[in-house]
Amino acid sequence: MTFAWAIWVQFGARVIAGGAFFLALLVALTHWAVRAKHLGAFGAWPRFVRGWSDPLLQPLERRIVRSGGNPQDAAFWLVGIAVLMGLALIAVVQWLIGFVYQTMALADGGGIVIALTLVHYGFSILIAALFVTVIASWLNISPYGRIMRIANGLTSWLLDPIRRVLPAFGPFDMSPLVAYFLLYFAERALISLML
Length: 195
Known about the structure:
It is built from 6 helices and no strands. The protein is an all-alpha fold. Helix 1 (4-35) packs across helix 2 and helix 1 packs antiparallel against helix 3 (74-109). The relative contact order is 0.08.
């Protein structure tokens, strides 16, 4: 199977992400120009931009006001959201393409390739849950949410014994780092034993 379709799909995702960033930047620059009095607030261009950007900006402005922020900053938040969503779109598309090619390789590879892939996926899920746990602790997210219960269930069996053995480093919890290296080396050891 040729790689041409994958290249075009990736190109399409990048064009969509770049276009969204460009439009959000155009909205932010127009709002900045109006606030800095370089453009009149009721001129043709600011009214045109506000007309098509209002469906995106109004919910964002409401959320910013509820958070205690200035709703005039919504256009700049829109740029940040466009960047993050664009990067997420590109990452998901690349992952999907890799998944399709890996599935095609699995179909041709036989039992050992399937077993190796399942081991890799299992360890990848544990490492992802470890990262979710760490980031949630930085952001002070409740451990009782649905996603956090799953992440804690996947990682507590490894983190709790490490926390009991590892000495405290002030406010820093080094157990996730130790757990990451343990998972990394355990995956490599298990794969080398399977080969």
